[in-house]
Amino acid sequence: MPLTSPTGRQKRLAQAISLSLLPLTYSVFAATSPNTLVVTATPAATDNANGQHLIPAFLDGNIANGGRLGALGEQKALDVPFNVVGYTAKLIEHQQARNLADVMKNDASVQNVRGYGNFSQGFRIRGFDLSADDIALGGLYGILPRQILPLEAVERVEVIKGSSAFLNGVPAAGSGVGGNVNIEPKRAGSEPTQRVSVDYTGRGQAGVSADVGRRFGDNDQFGVRANVVHREGETEIHKERDRTTGAFLGLDYHGDKLESSLDMGYVKSTIHHGRVGIRLNTLNNVITLPSVPSVPGNRTNYSSAWNYADLESRYVMMKNDYHLNDKWVVYSAIGSSHNNEWSASGAPLVSDMAGRSTVTRLTTHYKSDTTSGMIGLRGKVDTGPVSHQLNMNYSGIYNRSASAYTMSSAQNFGTIYDPRPQSSPATTFSDGNMANPHIRSKNINNGVALSDTLGFWQDRLLVTAGARYQHIDVKNYSYQGVEDKSAALKAHRWSPVYGVVFKATDWLSLYANHIEGLQASGTAPSSTANSGYIVGLGRTRQNEVGVKVEKGRYGGNIALFDMRRQVGLTGSDNVYRLAGEQRNQGVEVNVFGEPVLGWRVNAGSTWLRPKMSNANGYENKRWVSYDGKDAVGVPRNQWTLGTEWDIPRVEGLMVQANLLHTSRQYVNSANTLRIPSWTRLDMGVQYQMPIQSSTVSAITWRAGVENVTNEKYWDTVGTNNGYLTQGDPRTYKLSMSLDF
Fold first, then answer.
1. Structural domain includes residue 1
2. Integer Cα distance of 448 and 393 in angstroms
3. For residue 161, what is the enclosing H or E element?
4. How far is 103 from 606, CA to CA, in rounded Å?
5. Is 331 part of a structural domain of the chain?
6. Measured between alpha carbons, how far is 518 from 691 in angstroms, rounded to an integer?
7. What is the C-alpha separation between 71 and 50, in angstroms, rounded?
8. Cα–Cα dist 291/664, whole Å
9. Residue 10: pLDDT over 70
């Protein structure tokens, strides 16, 4: 039954957590009783027939050829008709990645996109947006911090490319129709972990972190993994200062029948004088500038000194898997998160090619609470010569957000090349209670999924068929907490999936799929006749074929896909409706492995044809057609070439480099303005010193440079008309880790 109020949600959450804790409590008493359960030595050693454990990294390196596919669990890429890859903690360490954007640069199908006027990290996968709110933790949406996630406690960053309404359900923010990202937390391994690290980034940003993990019990059935991090100081951007503190705890139990885990996290981030993007001036929905302004100096900070963001997040998640036998498992997960954010921001509004600008201050207080959960049954059965992998799954998510704001009128700013910001301007508009914001929205998404994967010829041919019934209930409220009936949506839809995998050999698979995405459409703009209405559920349909390889020392895939997403557009009758379509046709090529001992590669390229159809807009007080135009902000080509090389005859010395390229992107729907293509080089070196000590087992030094040539470039275009973000300047990174 959908949750209908905060009180009801809290009661049900307490009950659900209590029930979830029962198996873990039982396991503690059972393990300490004379009849101690027989357990496996480590999580990695447990059979993965039911998709419960991480796919091993390819050649124990940076890439895992597989990942968590929602209701289907963790799966090898060769065995499923979907495109999924995992980036490991080893890659995060080697590249000194500080945030998700640092990891995503390794994937040519993913484009980093920054939040509008804030510091949220979002992405575009196959040309469609994925907001930070809709990134999953252990398969659950809405649990992670909304804007900044430290990576010290992350074991895997798994990327699912393509629509996934059947696999994952519909997240609260309704994005991710082109792909999803799932984060898997660190767990205690068979060997104890005791590591302390220090790092230095930018012009004065120092950090310290600790990672401790250990297993306990007669058979190592209990595990504890704890991570803490604190990092603060000035970045390479002039006068921009960041501070992040995080603490994470992961507990787990592994028995012969029961597997349980409990994850908790707390993150506090503060950004002062942070550089945001710029906006290009518009009149009657048309950008008034004849072309895109040139890029300012890389260190130039055209944000105001009063720009800030104070972000606080905490979360908890519990998962339980009970193995009925070696073929059937009952699984469940439940989690909850709370976000509290204060910010003051103002993106310069550029009025001419000289970069003259005005700025308006917007101060907001945002709070959100989310509860997410799932329960399911997954197993295998044979009917004669045909095998079946059956799955039944329920998932639900409840999100409640509240906000208030104050706003100033515009003030002169100087130029983006020579910014002269003034003191924080006085408030001229406001709405809501800044001290205690009123509710602004409730999203309740519930879904039930059923699927069967039929195996023929000893599972050489696998055919998957399934569907998810999704019910979406969206309620919006005024800043005074009064429900706006016209801005509500209650709808439901079946989302099917069909897929086939043919294992030509043990190392070669051919696959095809049809799968769909689902999201609530945008709210009708204020200038339309049905202003404020949410007009329906937008569907994205995907067809994909491809080849996957994993042989010896190399692996990779080639995929061809065709994705069609319904989009909201305003018709000639001035009514906003789901009338248009964005069609992204593309080809992906990825190669990874170690072709020569000591030389590792990870390379990929994506070609896209992102066309609009049945699309029109209101420009200069007249209706114009955008049919055949490219979607705003979607490059036609991206490629990445990453490599690592263990230097011969110098034990422990490794060098690595990443070359990144993104082609031009259109800034407006008419395709008359665009930002140029850009190419960037990142490099690094790692040296693990040989140690002969009774206390220290290893000392690892790392040094890296991002944007080695200090290229100046516009990085991305926001879906908001005329919003641009600049690429980061050359940035130095140093770190040292001590393992005890």
1. no
2. 6
3. strand 154-161
4. 17
5. yes
6. 54
7. 11
8. 14
9. no
42 in a domain, yes or no?
yes
What pLDDT is stored for residue 665 in this prediction? 97
Distance between CA atoms of residues 377 and 391, nearest Å = 6
Instruction: Tell me what the mean pLDDT of segment 617-645 comes to.
Output: 87
pLDDT category, 620, cuts 50, 70, 90? low
The better pLDDT of the pair 601, 413 is held by 601
Phi and psi dihedrals of 719, rounded to 5? -65, -25
What gap in Å lies between CA 438 and CA 440, rounded to an integer? 6
- CB distance 465 to 492 below 8 Å: no
What are the structure tokens assigned to 496, written together?
Answer: 């099917």
- Which is nearest to 350 in space by CA: 297, 274, 417, 285? 417
How much is the average pLDDT of 218-234?
97
- pLDDT score at 28: 34
Say whether pLDDT at 43 is over 60: no
- Structure tokens, 132: 């930070």
Residue 24 tokens read as 């873990």
Give the max Cα distance, the chain. 82
Model pLDDT, residue 693: 78
Rounded to an integer, the average pLDDT of 403-423 is 92
Could you please report the per-residue DSSP string of 545-608? EEEEEEETTEEEEEEEEEEEEEEEEE-TTS-EEEEEEEEEEEEEEEEEEEEETTEEEEEEEEEE
Cα angle value 119/120/121 (rounded, 5°): 115
List 662's β-bridge partners, or say none.
638, 678
| Residues sharing a CB contact under 8 Å with residue 435, sequence separation 6 or more, in sequence order | 365
What's 468's DSSP letter? E
Nearest to 217 by CA among 252, 180, 248: 252
Rounded CA-CA distance 185/138 in Å is 7
What is the three-state SS of 622-670?
A: EEEECCCCECCCCCCEEEEEEEEEECCCCCCEEEEEEEEEECCEECCCC
CA dist., res. 55 & res. 60, Å (int):
11
We report the CATH number of the domain holding residue 42 as 2.40.170.20
What are residue 739's DSSP bridge partners?
Answer: 195, 698
* Average pLDDT of the residues in 301-323: 95
DSSP H or E stretch at residue 128: strand 128-130
Task: Evaluate whether residue 575 is within a structural domain.
Answer: yes
**661, 606 in Cβ contact below 8 A?**
no
pLDDT at 286: 87
Q: Which of the pair, 506 or 720, is modelled with greater confidence? A: 506
Domain range holding 64? 6-739
Q: Count the residues in the chain.
A: 740
Q: CA–CA separation, 327 vs 6, rounded Å?
A: 39
> Of all helices (H) and strands (E), which one includes residue 89?
helix 89-94
Phi, psi of 405 (to 5 degrees): -150, 160
Q: Cα dihedral angle (570, 575, 576, 581), rounded to 10 degrees?
A: -50
Total number of domains constituting the chain: 1
DSSP 3-30: --SHHHHHHHHHHHHHHHHHHHHHHHHH
Q: Record the tokens describing residue 80, joined without a space.
A: 């499923």
H or E segment to which residue 165 belongs: helix 165-168
Element containing residue 91 per DSSP (H, E)? helix 89-94
